[in-house]
Amino acid sequence: MTKKKSRLIAEGSDWTIEAIARYDDEIGRVAARYGLDCYRHQLEIITAEQMMDAYAAIGMPVYYHHWSFGKHFLETENRYKRGQMGLAYEIVINSDPCIAYLMEENTLTMQALVIAHAAYGHNSFFKGNHMFKQWTSADAIIDYLVFARNYIAECEERHGVDAVEQLIDACHALSNLGVDRYKRSPPLSLEKEKTRQREREAYLQAQVNDLWRTLPRHDAAVTEAEEKRFPAEPEENLLYFVEKNAPLLEPWQREIVRITRKIGQYFYPQRQTQVMNEGWATYWHYTLLNTLYDEGRVDDGFMLEFLQSHTNVVYQPPYSSNWYSGINPYALGFAMWQDIRRICERPDDEDRAWFPEIAGSDWRETFDFAMRNFKDESFIAQYLSPRLMREFRLFSVLDDDSQTKLKVDAIHDEQGYRQLRRNLAEQYNLGSSDPNIQVWNVDLRGDRSLTLRHFAHQRRPLSPASLTVLEHMASLWGFNVRLEQQAADGEWNLLAERKTERRKQGAA
Amino acid sequence: MTVRIVDRRQDSRNKSSINRSRFIRRFKGQIRKAVADAIARRGIRDLESGEKIGIPGQDISEPQFRHGKGGVRESVHPGNDRYQTGDQMDRPPAGGQGQGSGQASPDGEGLDDFVFTLTRDEFLDIFFDELALPNLVKRQLARIDEYKRVRAGYTQSGVPTNINLVRTMRGAAGRRVAVGGPYATRLRALQSELEAALDDMPVDAAEVERLQREIAALKARHEAIPFIDPFDLRYSNRIRIPEPSTQAVMFCLMDVSGSMDENRKQMAKRFFMLLYLFLNRNYEHIEVVFIRHHTVAEEVDEDDFFHSRETGGTIVSSALKLMVQVISARYASSIWNIYCAQASDGDNWNDDSPQCRELLADSILPLVQYYAYIEITDGEPQNLWHEYERLAASHAGVFAMQHIAEVSDIYPVFRELFRKRLA
Fold first, then answer.
1. Residue A303: pLDDT above 50?
2. Which of A96, A336, B152, B188 could share a disulfide with B239, CB 3.0–4.6 Å?
3. Which of B30, B58, B64, B81 should we substitute to test contact with A (largest number of A Cβ atoms within 10 Å)?
4. Are residues B79 and A456, on separate chains, in Cβ contact within 8 Å?
């Protein structure tokens, strides 16, 4: 009996720790054969409830406390209990070691899928992609979150929960405009944060005083005829500007602004690489598990179950379906990676015309290059092939509010490919989906009011709710805040203004 | 290289509980309103359970700078089944599926109610938040019948169940070292002497034999040191500390006469149910006396009070008289904080109402801390109300009256009557 030992890694659908470890070994072996370069990883087994906890904290194992996370938790719990949604199979954290959560309820097959998807797929993407390499410090994020939570808890103790909560509200409201889009931020580290935090307090306060210095001398001769703007260059990172320049913030408030800003920055690459990242992970779980099947290490039952959930994940409902809610990043990403491999291995004439540099090349090298050097926007602009556009039957719709009707301006045909691809890439450009609002000027000699300018893209207006965000900006700045918008004739018009009386409160 | 697998299932379960309570704290106003609505819908028996609460989605949205509708927008969609380049079509109705839904509710507006479930404790916490019995002042220290047992070090005597093993064994170990120390020193000295003697003497020499005997004797004595001695025993000591308690009694007076129709009775019962829940939840030691009356009053137990149906004419003073009797018999007012809540439709024998007022003014109000009267009627106030109004002026702070017309009034009135007042 023992002679004819089954080559299967494990049998049955119930998982055990040993079986998971065996699967991980095997998947790791295959992944190494394909040359996937990953961080070390750690698998954590959690319950559904803990999964919902993790959801609420955007997947992070430690996070500071805030009511909005409670809201997300209640929302998730409610929907989950009513059966409106299943929980994601996996959450993976871009840290070193990379942490992947396995949910207790999953079958062994699903655990293997999650391991291949998260612990090898996402993990290698985190390690290789330039966005992540440049913007996040995987080895320090957990430490930083611990620092953040403790610091904020301390502030709550010292300054009251309400004051801290209000501040974090304001920071969250501005968080999508609180990231550096072009500069690389220095790496995070717990110890450095702690030791530097005090220096920073003193230093920042001194910096801010610059703002004040000009004030008492206003009866001195007003010699500078030309009004200088402050800041000299417009600043698009609103939170950064607040942290460095808001005159009335206490040092601890600056620190909290910084914390939310840093964490927002950490998530910025994830927002920009959804299609690539999910597609990459999906491609690899598909490839790794299929390789195991070819080797005879998993059986047909395993594959059937795996393929069923895989197919669900990569399903793209058409625009006319009730289930349609935009393009499924898993579907598009997976199809694109598969397509790239096809172009490398079995190019046809069209591919040679469109992708002369990769047609017929080594697919592993091409994959590696593409994974490392792109984000969604450029990835699509570079690699979306006409064949895939036909397969997805993509079409592009122009919605111009000066026209009464919508217009289809490109479909999957010879004339439309390039425009279609450009439009789809643009759709993933965060630079144009987030409104472009910049700090334009501070009235240094007058009432210290802050002027923001909205540079409209394609004449898109701000949503009405944006005006309430101005309230938050005003509470951070401490003085009046104005928002201007350019009219069609090029004039800058005042869109909204929020007055703050914080100075008086402070004096009282 | 095996992977590290951590089983976190046993870890703290409610990582989000702080965030959850923050959320509830933040939206207390809205939640309280929803709770008040919920209580009006509820049956009388399931007041004390969790509740699904909805608060307006708008209030809890987290706005960010976003694009609104308008401007020029390109969107790419899959599954083209009919369009050619240049085709035109009408805009789909806002919020519908189809084109343009690529952006999901960009500004968080127009969301439906945010619905979630409060646990029973959260529900009642919010429900009775900031309520208190007014004038709870008589803290009688003379009659102490509450004791708290607290730890008070260790003693050398006690009952076996109280033996403190750690202390006892620590003492025993110390004693064994202390008592056995000299023997051990002497033993070591003898051992080395013996070894020296054995080196230059035959094994059967008298000196060797003497040493060996002495060593054996010493060993025996060393081993005879008891492992544990009665002297080592230590007992955990607990002493009783008297705990002063505040004594309070609540009288619930309910009119069950014929003029109180089923609807009004239900409202009165709801009110008392709330009161009863509130007292049980927020005060550990409180007695409740239930009195119901039509033409005659009787003291009943909780179950009868809330669930029996009996009816007749109305003489309110009967209940007041009974209350006075009960007070003088069982609740001497120098020791007890006495509260009373009375519910009636205000319809009384005409001759009886002035009598009620006199009874209250002369014999009851001087004794009680707080007297709340609620009149349940959807019409004009009745004669009892007019009589009582005269009391309200002269006994402000002790006597309060409110008017309930429909179920949804109950909770606001309840809150008003038992609002926490600054001392």
1. yes
2. B152
3. B64
4. no
Give mean pLDDT, residues B104-116. 52
**In terms of CA atoms, which chain B residue is nearest residue A412?**
B80
User: Which DSSP helix (H) or strand (E) runs through B116?
Assistant: strand B114-118
Same domain, B313 and B405: yes
Are B118 and B187 found together in one domain?
A: no
Banded model confidence at residue A283, pLDDT cuts 50, 70, 90:
very high
Is residue B181 situated within a structural domain?
yes
- pLDDT of A51 higher than 90: no
Say if residue B346 is in the same domain as residue B405.
Answer: yes
Tell me the pLDDT tens digit for each residue of A322-364. Answer: 888 889 999 999 999 999 999 999 999 999 999 999 998 999 9
pLDDT at residue A418, as a whole number: 93
Q: Are residues B382 and B308 in the same domain?
A: yes
What's the pLDDT tens digit per position in B274-310?
Answer: 888 887 777 767 788 899 888 888 898 888 887 777 7
| Beta carbons of A465 and B61 less than 8 Å apart | yes
Chain A residues inside the 8 Å CB shell of B2: 21, 24-25
Cα dihedral value A152, A158, A162, A163, nearest 10: -80
Pairing of the two strands A481-486 and A450-455: parallel
Burial code of B206-228, b = ≥16 C-beta within 10 A, e = fewer? eebeebeeebeebeeebeeeeee
Report d(CA A465, CA A451) in Å as an integer: 19
Interface residue B138 vs chain A (CB under 8 A): no
Cis omega before residue A231 (within 30°)? yes
Residue that finishes a domain, picked among B188, B219, B238: B238
Instruction: Give the integer Cα–Cα distance in Å for A129 and A269.
Output: 9
Q: For Cα atoms A74, B65, A150, give the angle at the middle one, nearest 5 degrees.
A: 50
Q: Which of B203, B238, B273 finishes a domain?
A: B238
Residue ranges of domains in chain A: 2-129+273-305, 325-432, 433-507
Structural domain that includes position B253? 248-417
Residues A271 and A273: their CA atoms lie apart, in Å, by 6
Peptide bond into A97 cis (omega under 30): yes
For residues A192 and A250, the model is more confident at A250
Instruction: Considering only residues B276 and A258, tell me which one the structure prediction assigns the higher pLDDT.
Output: A258
Nearest to A24 among B3, B81, B109 (CB): B3
Out of A81-90, B282-291, B337-346, the most confident range is B337-346
Contact B3 A468 (CB under 8 A): no
User: At A295, is the pLDDT very low, low, confident or very high (cuts 50, 70, 90)?
Assistant: very high
Asked if residue A56 lies in contact with residue A72, where contact means CB atoms within 8 angstroms, the answer is yes
For residue A176, the chain B residues in CB contact (below 8 A) are 64-65
Percentage of chain A beyond pLDDT 70 is 89
Q: How many CB pairs under 8 A join A and B?
A: 284
For B151, the token pair is: 């730890």
pLDDT beyond 70 at B416: yes
Tell me if B99 and A420 make a contact (CB, 8 A cut-off): no
Question: Do B255 and B384 fall within a single domain?
Answer: yes
Instruction: Please give the CATH topology (third level) of the domain spanning A433-507.
Output: Trna Endonuclease; Chain: A, domain 1 (3.40.1350)
Q: Do A45 and B102 touch (CB under 8 A)?
A: no
Note whether B230 and B259 are same-domain residues: no
CA distance B271 to B306: 11
Tell which wins on pLDDT, B260 or A313: A313
Cβ separation B79–A320 shorter than 8 A? yes
Same domain? For B221 and B269 the reply is no
In a domain, B410, yes or no: yes
CA distance A105 to A14: 9
ipTM: 0.83
